[in-house]
Amino acid sequence: MRTETALSILSAMITPAILMLACSSLIMTTSSRLGRILERARRLSEEAEVAPAGKKRDLLFSMLLKSTRRAKLLQRSMVLLYLGLGTLMLTSIAIGVAAMSGDGRMPAALVTAGGMLAVGFLLTSSALLILESRIALASVDAEMDYVRNLIHDRA
Question: For the chain, which terminal residue's Cβ has fewer other Cβ atoms within 10 angstroms, N or C?
């Protein structure tokens, strides 16, 4: 194998590696968000158990439901991110196989399909993360409305 060919193959294999790095960063960030939401859900649950019936308890229950929905979205997003990461790894391997084989047509099609599938997983995961962040904002808005009304009623 000539040096130019080897460098070309190596360059082609690095492209998915860059996407793998970005995907891994998203996995770590999403995992951290999920952990924080689970801790918040536990605190909200404990507060709701002892809160007397009324507006405060209703707010806690609403926030607990939103936290549960957020956790489910983040979990689904992480599954898609892991699938994307795995698909990118397989794509990188397929690039090497395509380079090593004499007839690169089938592996080339596999590489293209793998890359497109991985990007599809990442795109879908991103949509779920956007949806989760909108629910987080709605939860904060509801909490601020409650505090605003509480202050207004006491004034």
Answer: C
